[in-house]
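Researcher: I'd like a candidate sequence for this fold, 183 residues long. If you have to choose between options at a position, lean toward the conservative one.
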């Protein structure tokens, strides 16, 4: 299947999706709401088509219309959010119903939203992790397709924990995306 990947920054999960693509999927476009996103540079170097537009420039509606058109033009059938930090509108989600997935750095349903690692440490949790889930209108709320767990160690900071979880994200996301598309 042809997949479009949406990023807002570094794009390390996007790189892992590209690097680990199998017969199950191909990344046909990388799109960003931040034209300065570091991941776009790498995608262009790989020869992957990119799309970048700031919603602040044109307004959210025009931004999403242009994004939708660019994704369809590139042949994307499914979307994978990878560090995409904007909320997609209900309309956009409806147009891609059950064809968008996201990776979130917590063991959902725990810690939807931001600052997941700091919250897990503050709660005294023994473990943290990441989840791949279907995107619905509810933030970080759709069905969970796969998770990976890591222990929280004494002395962990949000940064050290984030690095340990990120390693698992890079393994989990390509595997779950491929499984989901061949279900
Ligand atoms: C990842 O931890 C992802 O789960 C979260 O933001 C981070 C993005 O990192 N939503 P990257 O851009 O994939 O490197």
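Model: Candidate sequence:
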């Amino acid at each position: 299947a042809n997949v479009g990947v949406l990023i807002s920054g570094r794009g390390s999960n996007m790189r892992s999706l590209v690097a680990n693509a199998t017969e199950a999927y191909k990344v046909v476009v990388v799109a960003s709401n931040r034209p300065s996103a570091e991941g776009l540079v790498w995608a262009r170097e790989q020869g992957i088509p990119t799309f970048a537009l700031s919603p602040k420039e044109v307004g959210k509606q025009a931004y999403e219309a242009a994004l939708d058109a660019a994704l369809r033009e590139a042949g994307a059938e499914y979307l994978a959010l990878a560090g995409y930090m904007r909320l997609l509108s209900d309309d956009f989600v409806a147009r891609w119903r059950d064809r968008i997935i996201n990776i979130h750095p917590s063991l959902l349903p725990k810690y939807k939203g931001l600052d997941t690692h700091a919250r897990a440490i503050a709660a005294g949790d023994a473990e943290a992790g990441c989840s791949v889930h279907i995107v619905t209108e509810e933030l970080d709320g759709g069905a969970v397709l796969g998770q990976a767990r890591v222990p929280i160690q004494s002395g962990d900071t949000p940064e050290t924990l984030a690095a340990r979880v990120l390693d698992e994200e890079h393994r989990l996301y390509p595997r779950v995306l491929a499984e989901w598309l061949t279900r």
